[in-house]
Amino acid sequence: MIEILDKMKEECGVFGITMKEDTAAYDVYDGLYALQHRGQESAGIAVLSHGDLKLRKRMGLVAQALEPEDLAYLTGSIGVGHVRYSTQGDSSVLNAQPLTAKSKFGALAVAHNGTLVNTELIRSLLEDSGVVFQTDTDSEVIVNLISRGIHKGLENAVLSAVQTVKGSFALVIAFEDKLIGIRDAYGIRPLILGKRGEDYILASESCAIDTVQGEIVRDIRPGEMVVIEKGQVKSYMYSEKTKQQTCSFEYIYFARPDSIIDGISVHGLRIKTGERLFQETPLDADVVIGVPDSGLAAAIGYSRASGIPFDVGFSKNKYIGRSFITPSQEARVKAVFLKLNAQKDVVAGKRVLLIDDSIVRGTTSKYLVDLLYRAGAKEVHFLVSSPMVMFPCYFGIDTPYRENLIAAKMSKKEIQDFIGSTSLHYLSTEGLIEALGHSSFCLGCFSGVYPLGAPNEFLEVLI
């Protein structure tokens, strides 16, 4: 993927496992490795063994943040892990997860994927009652709410906490000999239950369950809490008015292609969007190529539907680091050309169909079109396998403010002129819904209609 100027940035990934042996940390590490695409700022693991809590978390990728000696130290049969991209709170080790708390009733570890929309109100009320916060993340609000009610039992404390907060959340919680998974009432962020022999697993994506050689049991339902204890799984529906609104961008871009979320194959969906794109915009060209890696599946789908040959249009330098962390705009632009080069023998003298999953800011798209023209392409038609991104997301994805979204301030023709393509075409919202198979998805970044109201700090950017 080109995680640079023109993509939404990842949210977070959570993983949990309960087993008989005291080696849970090793499986959590492997699970986080599989979820690395969901967050690259920090990684952490907390384990519990007979109520004893151990924690290691640092900044960086999983392999950088967690050393072999950390895993040897983290002895415990219940493990919770987290990879983070900050959507609320500074990027610092203080805000890295899992977050932990200790009380006379036991130690608690929480990993959270998502964003709350009523954080400031609850935080203020908690501070007025004497609670001291150690971080500036919304996740600590959940930890404190659970800790305050833990005397009533973990299940009751968690249920009370999630009925107080509003927003998106997939939570994995460890306490004593229990592992809990809970998903918000709209199911905006994914959470999946897996099993490996007598071990139970919770993960943001099924690819992490596959990595530890587990099998998918099912997705946690919107508004559901599962409690895993002594090899048994109990289910509680805490919200009666559940309406599934899974984030559509999980399928369009964020999730790994080998994942299955809510019964839908991510790779299969991306193939379908390419096929649907051809149905809506049948163009005549010599070759179909995809932007690595985000547009490849849709390009394959378009090629299959149209009969136009698919080929690899860009050569990728695998040894260049993540270029969005470079310090200046000029350096990030240069990094695009360091990471990718057009395959001249594929595109020279040809009418090229270039397919990507989305255009957010438009800057990278412009550079890619320029690369193809430099390589001798005669025409470059840019096709996007999702609708125009016109509104920000505040449910766990770091989307630019609306003023930074190119489709919020330019018409399609103006965007085409900006990126320099021969033509520009987007998949319609109806086409995306048809590819997904039903309409139970959050499409807020395309329509501005969200499952929940925006928090106050976002209202001005939605106008």
User: Helical stretch count?
Assistant: 18
How many β-strands, per DSSP? 23
Low-confidence stretches: 1-5, 322-329, 457-463
Lateral strand order in the biggest sheet: 3-2-4-1-10-9-11
What portion of residues is helical?
25-40%
Largest sheet: 7 strands, antiparallel
Distance between the termini: 31 Å
Integer average pLDDT:
89
What is the alpha-carbon Rg in Å? 22 Å
Structural class: alpha+beta
Strand content: 25-35%
Shape: elongated
Give the structure's gist in a few sentences.
With 463 residues, this protein is of the alpha+beta class. Helix 13 links the parallel strand 20 (351-356) and strand 21 (379-384).
Please describe what this structure looks like.
The chain has 463 residues and is α+β, with helices and mostly antiparallel strands. The protein contains 18 helices and 23 strands. A 7-stranded antiparallel β-sheet has the order 3-2-4-1-10-9-11. Strands 5-6-7-8-12-13 form a 6-stranded antiparallel β-sheet, with helices on one face. A 4-stranded parallel β-sheet has the order 17-20-21-22, with helices on both faces. Strand 12 and strand 13 form a beta hairpin. Helix 5 crosses helix 6, helix 9 (266-280) crosses helix 10 and helix 9 (266-280) packs across helix 16. The relative contact order is 0.12.
